[in-house]
Amino acid sequence: MTYEFLRNHDIPHGKCGKLIVALVKAELKALEDLKKRGDENGVENLRLIDRAEAQKIEPRVRCLAALSSPETGILDMAAI
Question: pLDDT tens, 21-41?
Fold first, then answer.
């Protein structure tokens, strides 16, 4: 609904996606918890991915694993 609102009001925006990364083993559980919370809140297309898949999305990323959020975007707050 957010993207529809932005389009309808001619607010500059882009759906660019986001990777939330785990750099150390202790952060892996936090990624799982974030995915669970996102799923419970209706966030679409969240996926836990391994290092190789994260590097296909962003070749320079260094991580153990990542949470991929392809629906995440940016917008021009000044335009609002």
Answer: 999 999 999 999 999 999 999
pTM: 0.84
- Quote the CA–CA distance of 6 and 62 in Å, as a whole number: 33
Cα 69 from chain centre: 3
Q: List beta partners, residue 22.
A: 65
3-state secondary structure 46-71: CEEEEHHHHHHHCCCCCCCEEEEECC
Provide the token pair at 58.
């962003």
Whether residue 22 contacts residue 66, with contact meaning beta carbons closer than 8 Å, is answered with: yes
Pick the closest to residue 71 from 32, 21, 19 (CA basis). Answer: 19
